[in-house]
Every structure is written in C-alpha cells, then in structure tokens.
Design goal:
Length: about 500
C-alpha cells in the first residue's frame, strides 16, 4: 500500500526515527504534496511554463534577482507575494577554478567545525564522569537519609541503612589500619570473633558497657565505634558539599556543551552548503552537462511564493463562516543553471560571474497552510541532518541523566507554589467555568456562534485559490518575457 500524505505526517512524529530517516520521509511528503496541489487545466494538463534564457554576454545573476524582486515587490512594481527559497544545489567541474575556490572555502569551515567538535567531545567525556560520580554519591546519600529516623519512619529500613554505612566504613576506612582493623581482628590469630557482630549491633556508645563481652573487646569496640560516629557525621557533611559542587559543575559543563554546539552549527551548516551535489540522469549516471576538463557549473534553485486567499474575497457572506483550512495561491519558479564561471577582479578580491544558460520553469500550486509548512520544514531540515547528528546526539543521549540531576531541586519548589496558589486557582477556575457557560449560552442566544463553512464553501474557496495561482503564474511568465524583450502574444 502506497504511503499517503497523512501517513507520512504521522511517521514524522515517530521519535525513534533518525535525522536521515526523517529527511527521506519529508522528501517523499513534499513530492506527494506538490503532485496533489499542482493546478491543472480542464483537460488535466498541469499549468507550467518553460523559458530558456541563453546569454554569454552578461551574467545570469540579474535574471534571478529580477524574478525575485518582481514577485516580492508590492504593486504596481511587483506581485506582492511572500517568497522563500526552498531548494539550492550546485556542482562544479573538478577541472575548473570555481571548484578549487569553493572546496577551499568548504575546507576552512570544516577545519573550524572539527576544532570545536574536539572540545565538544572533551566536555561530553567530562559529563559522563560527573554523572557516574553523582550516581554513586546519590546512592550513598540515600543510605544516609534512610539511616536518619527523622526522615525514615520504617525502623527496618533505618536499621538496614545503618548496617550499610557500617559496612562502608569497615571496607573503605577501617581496613586502612591494617592488622588493627575489625575484619582482621575478627579472623586473624587474635581471635576477636565477637568484635564484628558486636560492632553491627551497637547503636550508642554508652550501650557497649551493657554487652556481655570481655574488657579488651569492649575497649576496642568503643574506640572503633567512636571513630565510626565521627566519620559518619563528617563524611555525610563532606559528601553533601561535594555533591552540591559537582552538581554546579555539571550545570556549567552542560552550558559549555550547549555553547560549543551552538558555535559549531554555523560552520557545519556553511560547510554543508558549500558541499556540492552530484547531478545524475534518470538512469543514475553522472549528468552529461558536467565535463571534468571544462570550467563549468550546474545549479538548481527553487523559489516558492505564496499569497493567502481570504474567503470573504471569494464571496462576502463567507466571512460569517469558519473554514478548516487556510488556502494559499502558490507560485514555484525553478531555475536550472548551466554556466561557465568567469573570475572577475574587484577591490574586495576575486569574484565569479556566471555566463551560460538558464532553464526557468513556472508552476502554479494551490496549497493549504499545513502543506506549505511541510515544504518549508523540508528545506530547513535538509541541511541540518548532519549538523543535528554531530552536535546534538550526544546531548540527547545524556539528556535523561542530566535532567535527573539538574531538575532534582525543582519539584519541591513547584509543590510549594502549588500549595500556596491552590485556593486561588480553584476560585479562579470556578469563575472561569461560569464565564464559559455564560459565554456559550449568550452566543447561542444571540446567534453569534460561528458556523462551519461546510464542504461546498471550502470547495469554492479552493477553486478561487487555484484560479489565483494560475493567474499569478501566467502574469509572471508574460511580464518576464516582455521585460527581457521576448516575443509575447
């Protein structure tokens, strides 16, 4: 089953798609939208005009800017349309000077982007280490919280947390005393087998005297338990300070990462735009217009102009109705350049002027606002696929962990605000519901409620949109020929 416009739009909402997969879906979506929206004559033929402009006496740039200015300028010197560039691709022959010039500029942009991305990778590694450390500290702090009877009401959890802290102290602090550690004393030749169990059972220093132990064991137990209590207080305080410091450092590293990726994007986009596209024939072979030994260049450039159609302009009574779609009369101008770039010396340096042939295609489309948005997104994201993958994939993969730590303190503040404003919000919402009920009743009573336009009126506005698009296409084609001294009739 072939994909429809709606199914492709649903596909784009899938968060699992990569940037390249989304770009492929957008490309197919744009093709279907243009096929559906192309204005046709009564016999089914599309409204399309084709002009070949051939000149080796002057540059071709004025032709492009004449079309752009005429579509964009307000009447009477133009058509008053809103114009966007939706496609731009070029290829230069490898034997020409233009290829070397563009490749050199692209290399400079690539080198600068790579330098910045090197800093990005360093920061990402730093963030990974910080997240690992913060996770360990968070687990330890949870044990401290559970061991506090004021925070944890379940005695079994308090006792389990206390055992965990004692194990940490024995394995990481007391073990450094060597043969004098609790573990070594309990299993060594000294045979203090009861020392370890007694250490886990004691909760207060004064309770040690009540234990049924010999004097030597009690002396060692008091010494070890006093050291443990001191370590626990100081250790928790220092751990919380370190946790707070590393959280702040994580925030600064994330801000630095975003800053560096922001700096890298312009260079990556510039390098991507300066990169050339290999034009191919329908059979997949290289374009015959490009010959390696020649100094030639091929470029495809597309402008999309639009103008919103007001329903009340179709019929005065239509202003009383609500239309589901906003319709636009669109005009596409597609330029196919085949040129010979010639270097020209100027005060600012060497520039290239293009001499050759332009194929200009004028096409009329009738589109909805959603159709135009999809076409504009295709151009916006076309050059951003590689950029997003290089600069944002690292941040996206780490985003869940980053949000966990950096947003940990925001939930409590939000709860406090909700509690403080809850009464007023309830009061306001009560009046709001009353106002809504009163408003809807008033509209129904006085007949002010806007009715849906219905299929017939929607169809009539679309017909007017198609007619306006066809008229704009014919007008631009006719005026272009007259302005450039071509035969018209």
């Amino acid at each position: 089953m072939a994909d429809s416009i709606e199914t492709l739009r649903l596909k784009l909402k899938d968060k699992k798609l990569t940037a390249s997969e989304k770009q492929a879906v957008r490309k197919k979506l744009v093709e279907l939208i243009k096929k559906k929206s192309l204005v046709r004559l009564s016999n089914g033929d599309p409204i399309e005009y084709h002009i070949i402009y051939d000149t080796f006496q002057q540059g071709l740039e004025p032709v492009y800017f004449w079309v752009l200015d005429f579509m964009r300028n307000k009447k009477p010197s133009g058509m008053g349309l809103e114009v966007d560039k939706v496609e731009e691709e070029f290829e230069a022959s490898v034997g020409g000077g233009y290829f070397g010039e563009m490749s050199q500029k692209a290399s400079i942009m690539q080198d600068r982007a790579i330098q910045i991305l090197g800093h990005v990778n360093t920061i990402v590694r730093s963030i990974l280490n910080l997240i690992y450390n913060l996770r360990e500290m968070e687990m330890r702090l949870e044990i401290y919280d559970d061991a506090d009877p004021k925070k944890q009401k379940d005695y079994s959890k308090v006792q389990a947390a206390e055992y965990s802290l004692k194990s940490v102290w024995m394995d990481q602090v007391d073990i450094k005393t060597g043969i004098g550690s609790i573990n070594n004393l309990a299993r060594g030749d000294l045979q203090f087998v009861t020392l370890r169990d007694a250490f886990f059972q004691v909760n207060k220093l004064k309770d040690i005297n009540k234990f049924d132990l010999n004097k030597r064991v009690k002396i060692i137990l008091k010494k070890k338990f006093a050291e443990y209590l001191k370590w626990r207080v100081i250790g928790e305080s220092e751990l919380r300070k370190r946790y707070s410091i590393e959280l702040n450092y994580l925030q600064s590293q994330v801000d630095s990462l975003r800053l560096y990726t922001k700096w890298a994007k312009p260079y990556l986009r510039a390098a991507n735009k300066l990169g050339m596209t290999e034009f191919k024939t329908k059979s997949g072979l290289p374009s015959p217009d490009m010959v390696s030994a020649f100094s030639s260049m091929k470029m495809e450039l597309t402008l999309m102009a639009k103008k919103k159609i007001d329903p009340k302009g179709v019929h005065p009574t239509y202003q009383k109705f609500r239309f589901d779609n906003e319709n636009y009369a669109c005009l596409e101008v597609n330029f196919l350049f085949r040129t010979m770039p010639q270097p020209v010396r100027m005060e600012s340096g060497q520039q290239y002027v293009n001499f050759g042939v332009i194929d200009i295609f004028f096409r009329a489309y009738a589109m909805t606002k959603e159709d135009i948005t999809d076409i504009e997104k295709h151009e916006v994201f076309q050059d951003m696929g590689l950029v997003e993958n290089l600069t944002e994939v690292s941040l996206k993969n780490l985003q869940e962990d980053i949000d966990h730590f950096l947003d940990s303190g925001k939930d409590t503040e939000q709860e406090i605000k909700v509690k403080q404003s809850g009464i007023f919000e309830s009061l306001g919402s009560g009046f709001g519901d009353l106002g809504k009920a009163f408003g809807s009743g008033t509209k129904a009573l006085f007949g002010l409620e806007v009715k849906s336009a219905g299929k017939y009126r929607e169809k009539e506005v679309m017909k007017a949109t198609q007619s306006a698009a066809a008229g704009n296409c014919i007008l631009l084609y006719d005026i272009f020929k007259k302005a450039h001294r071509m035969i018209t009739w």
